Amino acid sequence: MSTVASRVVRSSPHRDTASTWDLIVDLLTQGEQGAARAELMSVAGVASSIIAERAPQAAAIVATCDGPRTRIYCLYDDDAIDGADAKEDSLGYEPLKGNWAVSLPCSADDLTWVQRALKAKSSRITARDQSTKLGESESVDARSQGLTLNVDAFLKS
C-alpha cells in the first residue's frame, strides 16, 4: 500500500469554484511559481466546472508523483460554511515531485468533453469517471485518512 495524504477543502458557498481550484493548486504546488502551477492553472475553467458539479465531494482529485499520493475532496453547502471537517493545511512533502499527474473526478455525462478539453491543455492532467477508483482498496473512508505508516516495514532492519 502506498502512502496517502488527504485534504478536504471548503468550496461553495464558502468560496467560489475558481477560488477552490486556486486553493487546490496552491496546496499541490506549495505556493511555488513554475511550470506545474502554470499547467494546473491552464485547466482552471475545466477544473472549476468539475468542482461546480460537485464531483470531488465523494470522489477525490488525485495527485500522484514520485512521493506520496494526495487525495483532495471538497465540502459543499452547510459543511463548507461550518468548516469543521475541512483540512486545508499545507502538505509536508512535495505533492508534484518528479513525474507527477493529476486525475480529476467527473460525472459520466461530462466525461467525454472534459477529457477532450484537458487533453488539449495537458498530458499530465486527466479526467476519470467519478465512480472509478484509482487503486483504492482501502475500506476506510479516504477523507478521514492522513499519512499512513507501514509499521512492519518501518521496524525492519
Entry summary:
The protein is α/β, with parallel strands linked by helices.
Task: Summarize the helices and strands and which ones pair or pack.
Layout (H helix, E strand, L loop, with lengths): L3 E7 L6 H13 L5 H8 L1 H9 L8 E4 L4 E7 L1 H6 L18 E6 L4 H11 L3 E5 L21 H5 L2
Parallel strand pairs: 1-3, 4-5
Antiparallel strand pairs: 2-3, 2-4
What does it look like?
- It is a single chain.
- The protein is an alpha/beta fold and 157 residues long.
- The chain has one domain (4-133).
- It has 6 helices and 5 strands.
- It has a 5-stranded mixed sheet.
- Helix 5 links the parallel strand 4 and strand 5.
- Helix 1 (17-29) runs antiparallel to helix 2 and helix 1 packs across helix 3 (44-52).
- The longest helix has 13 residues, at 17-29.
- The model is unreliable at 136-146 (pLDDT under 50).
Shape: globular
Number of domains in the coordinates? 1
The share of residues in helices is: 25-40%
Taking pLDDT < 50 over at least 5 consecutive residues as the criterion, the unreliable ranges are 136-146
| Helix count, DSSP H or I runs of 4 or more residues | 6
Distance between the termini: 19 Å
The helix/strand class is: alpha/beta
What distinguishing features does this structure have?
single chain; 157 residues; alpha/beta; 5-stranded mixed sheet; 5 strands; globular
